[in-house]
Amino acid sequence: MPRTLLTLAGTLALAGCASLPGVPGAEDSISVGPPDSPIAPALSQSSPAVRPPTPAFVEERARHAYATGRRDVAEGYYLQLTRLQPRDAAPWFLLGNLYAEQGRLLMAERAYREALRRRDEARTLHNLGLVQVRLGVGALREARERLPADDPVHEETREFLRALLDALAR
Questions:
Q1: Integer CA distances (angstroms), 62 to 28, 75, 113, 118, in order
Q2: Percent of the chain scored above 90 by pLDDT?
Q3: How does pLDDT run across 14-65, given as a tens digit for each residue?
Q4: How far from chain centre, in Å, is Cα 138?
Q5: Is the pTM of this model over 0.90?
Q6: What per-residue string of b and e applies to 94-131 under the rule 16 or more CB within 10 Å gives b?
Q7: Considering only CA atoms, which of 26, 62, 23, 58 is closest in space to residue 43?
Q8: Which of 48-52, 53-57, 127-131, 152-156 has the lowest mean pLDDT?
Q9: Residues 92 and 111: beta-carbon distance below 8 Å
């Protein structure tokens, strides 16, 4: 009996999806039973159009996901928000913060640049600079490790890295 109910629920869900406007093949209805069955009238009624989510709703969901530590979910919502509000810098800024926290520095840099294209703000420029410093430190560390110890650039790289890290410590 439970399996029959599960099958019926799945069939009803598929029938509802097929009747959504704009879905290819929506004209082809799924047959659930004879037209005089109790299910047929419910399926023949048109379902209300599904409205796209509002930017405010998506932003609230993104902030909630971020606050509860679900960074991957928050990323999806922020990306959706960038499409819903293409001229707004805020979603790009928040996306940059998310990427920077995760150590995805190239993605953070790209997001901050997109935010700056939309609105030139000092906070965004500040965060972009921090990400670029982290990228620079990483590049200098890698260069120092890969350069032969007798290469004069090895010592120069070590000095640049030391100076940069000293400046950051102040």
A1: 36, 7, 21, 20
A2: 59
A3: 333 433 333 333 333 334 444 454 544 454 455 568 888 999 999 999 999 9
A4: 25
A5: no
A6: bbbbbbbeeebbebbbbbbebbbebeeeeebeebbeeb
A7: 26
A8: 48-52
A9: yes
Q: Which two tokens stand for residue 169?
A: 């410590």
- The full set of domains in the chain, from first to last, is 2-44 (no CATH), 55-169 (1.25.40.10)
- Cα 47 off chain centre by: 30
Cα distances from 11 to residues 7, 30, 130, in angstroms, run 6, 8, 53
CA distance 27 to 64: 38
The pLDDT score that the predictor gives to residue 6 is: 37
Among 99-108, 131-140, 154-163, the range scoring the smallest mean pLDDT is: 154-163
